[in-house]
Design goal:
Bound molecules: zinc ion
Strand order of the largest sheet: 6-5-4-7-8
Shape: globular
CATH architecture of the largest domain: Beta Barrel
Helix content: under 10%
Order of helices and strands: HEEEEEEEE
Structural class: mainly beta
Distance between the termini: 27 Å
CATH class of the largest domain: Mainly Beta
Number of domains: 2
CATH topology of the largest domain: OB fold (Dihydrolipoamide Acetyltransferase, E2P)
């Protein structure tokens, strides 16, 4: 992270002065349910009841077998970085204080891929296939947005 004190005064951004970040706008009830489930602090994906394939984005029919039957299953929240890009320009003013940031596609251990943001590391620390884990970013007081951060080292996870 760059040190704000190193920037000339005009480039300092007061996060309090920024507009709120836009929230997802679900287009149908099944997408709405995906976001509602995130508000419990867990990430869920649909899983086909017929062939057991996980899926994302939310949809009404299994792309593998065509079954309309599914359940919502909790994700492990763990995965690998499948792809990313570093965004240097805020295309929405709410993100002005966060550039550069990492827009990412994470492949969850369940096999589904999800567009998200990688937080908790600088763009220079990002590597392909790095292990990542789920976190939630609060947007205001009443919305949780799933994001990912570098996973703690697997071999030190249980150490104090
Ligand atoms: Zn299926």
């Amino acid at each position: 992270m760059s040190d704000e004190a190193d920037l000339p005064p005009k480039q300092r951004i007061d996060p309090q002065a920024l507009p709120p970040k836009p929230r997802p706008r679900p287009q149908d009830p099944v997408e709405q349910e995906f976001w509602e489930r995130c508000q419990s602090g867990r990430l869920h994906f649909q899983r086909c009841s017929a062939c057991h394939a996980w899926r994302h984005l939310p949809r009404y029919m299994c792309a593998r077998c065509g079954s309309p039957d599914f359940t919502w299953q909790p994700s492990s929240g763990k995965g690998t970085l499948f792809s990313w890009t570093v965004t240097h320009q805020a295309l929405h003013p709410a993100f002005a204080a966060e550039v550069p940031f990492v827009a990412a596609v994470v492949e969850l251990d369940e096999g589904v891929r999800m567009a998200t943001r990688l937080v908790g590391c600088s763009p220079g620390e990002v590597t392909l296939d790095m292990r990542v884990e789920l976190d939630f970013e609060p947007l205001g007081d009443d919305f949780l947005l799933p994001v990912f951060r570098p996973a703690e080292a697997e071999d030190s996870r249980n150490e104090p």
